[in-house]
Design brief:
Strand 2 and strand 3 form a beta hairpin. The longest helix has 16 residues. Strands 2-3-1-4 form a four-stranded antiparallel beta sheet. The chain is of the alpha+beta class. The protein has a single domain, classed as 2-Layer Sandwich (Alpha-Beta Plaits), CATH 3.30.70.
Length: about 150
């Protein structure tokens, strides 16, 4: 399942109390609880303040350039949204096909509003790669000791 199958209004509904059915609508990668929680649960319980989104994409052989272009279109839309801080796409090395996106948002509400925008939905609709998403709070950043 890819981003085009994520139903953003359902994700927004999932963030609201009493919207358990919406979690069933999310793509499997977002609804599964392999680590004990789902993405929808994270959206509902995220703390106030800045959040970090880490999402992975398993990109089939031969689709790296199409994926990169799709990601760039979606990222360009998101960077114009209120609350956007930054995003970085990390390309795998060696024989891995698992790409990682690291995005920082001022708040969960800003992130959810951006995903609900018609421009983002249109940009994400062309992406077919499987993804897995989790939200985090940054604890500590270290730079070089030099």
């Amino acid at each position: 399942m890819g981003l085009r199958q994520i139903i953003v209004p359902a994700m927004l509904a999932a963030a609201l109390p009493g919207a358990g059915r919406a979690e069933q609508i999310l793509s499997l990668s977002d609804a599964q609880k392999s680590d004990g929680t789902s993405f929808a649960e994270q959206l509902r319980s995220a703390p106030t303040g800045q959040i970090v989104l880490l999402n992975t994409f398993l990109v089939p052989e031969g689709e790296a350039e199409a994926f990169r272009q799709g990601w760039a279109r979606a990222a360009e839309v998101l960077r114009r949204q209120p609350g956007f801080v930054s995003t970085t796409l990390h390309r795998p090395v060696g024989g891995s096909r698992l790409w990682v996106n690291h995005a920082v948002w001022e708040s969960v509400s800003a992130f959810m509003a951006a995903l609900a925008s018609p421009d983002f939905k249109a940009a994400a609709a062309s992406m077919r790669q499987t993804g897995f998403r989790r939200l985090y709070q940054a604890e500590r950043t270290l730079g070089s000791a030099r």
